[in-house]
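User: I want to check something. If I give you two sequences, will you return the structure for each one separately, not as a complex?

Assistant: Yes, each is folded on its own. Here is the first sequence with its structure:
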Amino acid sequence: MSKIDVNGTAVHYTVQGNGRGLLFVHGTAGDGETNFGHVREHFTDRYTVITPDYSGSGHTPLHPGELSVDELVDQVIGAARAATDEPIDIVGFSLGAVVAAAAAAKHPELVRRLILINGWARNDDPRQQLALDLWRRLPDIDEDAFAAYSALLIFSPPFLAGFGSEGVKGTVAGIKAELGTLRQIELDGRVDIRDRLAAITARTLVIGSTRDVLIPVEHSREIHAAITGSDYAELESGHMVVFEKTAQLIDLVVEFLDRD
């Protein structure tokens, strides 16, 4: 694992493979390895795959002060530029989709293709605000309840039930209310990048999940409508589509990146 200083934060990242740069940007409570380690090998034969941990995740320390989308943009783009000086493709998931979209708007000369998975552009959805606010407050009340609620938020009912009783217990036991996670959830509730979407010039694919209760699919549809010329696809999955529908997601990403 390599690291680069970005605005005083030591941002850790991995680089594997050869070819055009492909930047994967993880979501809240994840990191480059947990969100994308199981899909990396499908791309390293043709791409230089870059998987950074942004502030508060993985090996990257929490940035002092309030997190912002722009700070995370600087961190992931800093890692990408340390790995390659050529234009890149970006795949962003969840909060990573927000960061990826903002990066493409800020650095149009750097981003060739853009894939946004289960992202959102606004923070004024009352139902979503209710879910995020409860998610953030639960650790102060009951950390076990936070873990259980997290599992209910991120997985679709049939996928979670498919773990079986012991599997569900093990999954919940592995979810922790880390400080970095809580700061990222706070940022989730402040996201508003609607005014940036029109500046995106990269060819874009937006992917939504129809059984997502954390970030309802309507948000992906709105992003698609706001980015001129973007393509759109949906998968029947909960929020953690990177695990629920791994093969189908990889197929969508590969097909889009391989287009002329």
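And separately, the second sequence with its own structure:
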Amino acid sequence: MTNLHVTDDGPRDAPVLLLVHGSASSVRSWDALLPLLAERHRVVRIDLLGHGRSAKPADAGYGVPEQARRAGAELDRLGIGRAVVVGHSTGGLVATALAEERPGLVTAVVLVDTGPSMDTYIGPRTAFGPEQWAGLTDEQVREAMSSAFGRPDHEAPASLVADVRGMTFAGFTAAQRGAVEYLARQPVPDRLTALGTPVLVLFGEDDRRWRPSTSLAAYRAVPGARVVSLPGAGHSPILEDPAATAEALLAFTANCR
């Protein structure tokens, strides 16, 4: 029995998109995009271990490569042999790692506001201890999540607040540590260059977690990568501007047969 919560929408004979959510999120972060994608694609979404409705064991490996291997195993279980993998924020690290681990499975990689390296990080460095974590209010969670949006007054949806509150402190910190370690070992643009896989990078012009200008320049150095800057969006264009995000994504996947 799988430990991961998986959703599977759209025509079974359509090209597959695997959507991987970001830190402290879940499959629900893709809800606004789903109807825009599922007419042309079979859309598989996964709650990574420790997130959403997936299991939250204290003794599991929450590193990026481990999460990628689990995602690949879910595609195997579904009988899917080829997929475009789309990751938002740290989900883009999992997408990249899956392409590294399973190049025959991943036909293309799409990164949505995934930081290229830790030296481009400009977001808050909020630290919670286990006691504070257990007592977090919805308002404190929304304040901590405010940098995920371009406008400071953009309020995090209740579903995302619930996703954060549903995580364990151990799972949250282990997943965060795993992302930092993955970026420290090698920047994402270098990994993509070595892969040679088709790449689309979408980045909100008003991202308040990763410096947009530096991040865009880093990804434009990847040979053949298509890099799209999304005006008016911050770190979460999948929530802030799902229409523009879907338009760019579908235009890219139309050439990934």
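Because they were folded independently, the notes below concern the second chain alone. The longest strand covers residues 106-112. The chain is about 40% helix and 15% strand.
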